[in-house]
Specification:
heterodimer, A: 128 residues, alpha/beta, 4 helices, 7 strands, 41% helix, 23% strand, B: 399 residues, alpha+beta, 12 strands
């Protein structure tokens, strides 16, 4: 079964890269460009994994995520945070759902794909 | 002529009249009954004009007269005045400051009879005091001006620093985003997911990928150095068993060392206690040192990573049997962009920032890093980190 990945990034070039990379890697991809689209896709379409940019325009991606958890977003959905500052530590460490990872930009797409494959497979095993 | 210790009256009179200070005596009414030539000369009067005719208040300012009226009766009773400042008025009306000391002479009935007063002209001293005061006031004004300038400069610096921090943040985001795109698409094409590519296309894109990786590293190191230097970097100090990190780092580079036919080993020379450090940053330092050692050591050579406890520090060494470093380069090797060798023995490129960053990380830990090397024989890079035996929470997670 193809995994459903929700990509949330305010940068068009990042959204396009993710769309191409993940589609060609066999995933179903949903793309959100701001916190409102994020909310819409996350709450209505139940992704298997969320890839979320920490700097979401003027919004803090982590805070947006935490707010969605309060609104009923499934905590079990793993989140991969992307950060341009991840060489040090993120400004406010993301409080996890069940699983989160932090990948720094520029990242290796192969590494991201491997991580996603592992997460989706693990989720599917749990479901069965 | 009388002897030295038995002066004649003439000699005494001479001493009295020509002393470098003024002498005078006042009767119970404050009238001059004796005065020496020096004081007469200062005042501009003759002896005839003064003796029996003028009183001390006659040569005082109005303020001085008031003081004398209050203080003379007390003097006549107590018998002594020490270093009282007065302003005396000359015959021509001008004034000059003096320091006056006096003792009273009493008669047989214990009644005041006359004063023996000594007067010192302190005009020069007062002038010097005024000049000093002026200089002090001027200096204070200069200091105030400079302080204002410094405060302004400080505010400007603070503002520039904030701008620089903002720039680092913006640069970090703005540069890394397009770089991610470039790396991402190259990776996608090279992986074959975007469709088959020809062998030359693969080769060319591999070159592009290598250059992009180098650009990535350069950007990362530049930003790290900027952050360390501007004090922005946050150190995640935790209790760490450093030997675990060293073993892991050696393991990470083992494959590369084997491929290059270089012996890479780790030696623990003495038992190490846990220390407080930012393990991710220390790994960066080790990555750099081991990577360099492998880059500049030829086939069948040896790279050894070792560690020991030396008093209160942990000493880590990365030694190699490589090509070594010239003495003149050893002094500059930790400077940013100082390339000792442009490329490694197998053409590997470097950013020229690795050792500069390593030095800053080590120094941020209050440690030291240095190199000893001999051209053609090899190098030893030593890092010392302060060690504490009372550290809790040793890190056990693996990278």
């Amino acid at each position: 079964m193809r995994g459903k990945i929700l990509v949330v990034d305010d940068e068009w070039s990042m959204r396009e890269l993710m769309r191409h990379t993940l589609t060609l890697s066999g995933f179903d991809v949903m793309i959100a460009g701001d916190h409102e689209e994020f909310r819409d896709y996350a709450l209505r379409h139940g992704p298997d994994v969320i890839i979320l940019d920490i700097m979401l325009g003027e919004k803090d991606g982590v805070q947006v995520y935490e707010k969605l958890l309060l609104e009923g977003l499934d905590r079990e959905i793993p989140v991969i945070f992307l950060s341009a500052l991840a060489q040090d530590r993120p400004p406010s460490p993301p409080r996890p759902g069940r699983h989160y990872a932090l990948i720094g930009k520029p990242f290796d797409p192969e590494e991201l794909v491997r991580e996603l494959q592992s997460l989706v497979t693990s989720k599917q095993k749990k479901a069965s | 002529m009388a002897g030295l210790f038995n002066p004649s009256n003439a000699e005494l009179r001479d001493l009295y009249n020509n002393a470098p200070c003024g002498f005078h005596s006042l009767n119970k009414d404050g009238i001059f009954i004796a005065i020496n030539d020096t004081e007469l000369r200062w005042l501009g009067y003759t002896r005839d004009q003064v003796l029996g005719k003028m009183s001390f208040p006659d040569i005082l300012t109005p303020k001085g007269k008031d003081r004398f009226e209050k203080s003379f009766p007390i003097f006549k009773e107590k018998g002594e005045i020490r270093e009282l400042e007065h302003e005396l008025v000359r015959r021509d009306g001008s004034t000059f400051p003096v320091l006056l000391s006096a003792t009273a002479v009493f008669d047989g009935n214990g009644q005041y009879w006359a004063s023996r007063s000594t007067v010192f002209d302190i005009s020069e001293r007062k002038q010097a005091e005024r000049a000093l005061r002026r200089a002090y006031d001027e200096l204070e004004m200069h200091v105030e001006d400079r302080t204002r300038e410094l405060k302004k400069a400080n505010l400007t610096l603070k503002h520039l620093d904030e701008m620089k921090s903002g720039f680092i943040l913006a640069a970090s985001h703005e540069l890394k985003t397009p770089l991610t795109s470039i790396k991402g698409y190259i990776s996608l094409i090279l992986s074959g997911r975007a469709g088959p590519i020809t062998a030359p296309q693969h080769e060319f894109l591999t070159h592009v990928k290598r250059a992009t990786d180098r650009l990535s590293r350069l950007l990362g190191e530049l930003l790290s150095i900027s952050k360390i230097e501007s004090g922005q970097i946050s150190m995640n100090l935790r209790g760490t068993h450093i030997e675990h990190i060293l073993k892991e780092e050696v393991m990470i580079f083992k494959a590369e060392a084997d491929q290059k036919q270089i012996d890479l080993d780790f030696t623990l020379k003495s038992r190490l206690h846990a220390i407080r450090c930012d393990s991710d940053k220390i790994r960066e330092v080790l990555d750099n040192l081991i990577n360099n050692a492998l880059k500049f050591t030829p086939k069948h050579g040896r790279v050894e990573v070792s560690a020991r406890r030396a008093d209160d520090v942990i000493e880590i060494q990365v030694s190699d049997t490589g090509i070594g470093i010239r003495p003149e380069d050893q002094l500059k090797i930790f400077d940013p962009f100082h390339h000792v060798h442009q490329k490694g023995l197998e053409g590997e490129e470097s950013t020229g920032l690795g050792l500069a960053l390593a030095k800053r990380i080590v120094e941020a830990h209050r440690g030291k890093i240095w190199v000893e090397s001999e051209e053609g024989k090899g190098s030893v890079f030593t890092v010392t980190l302060p060690g504490r035996a009372d550290v809790r929470e040793p890190e056990t997670s693996l990278r």
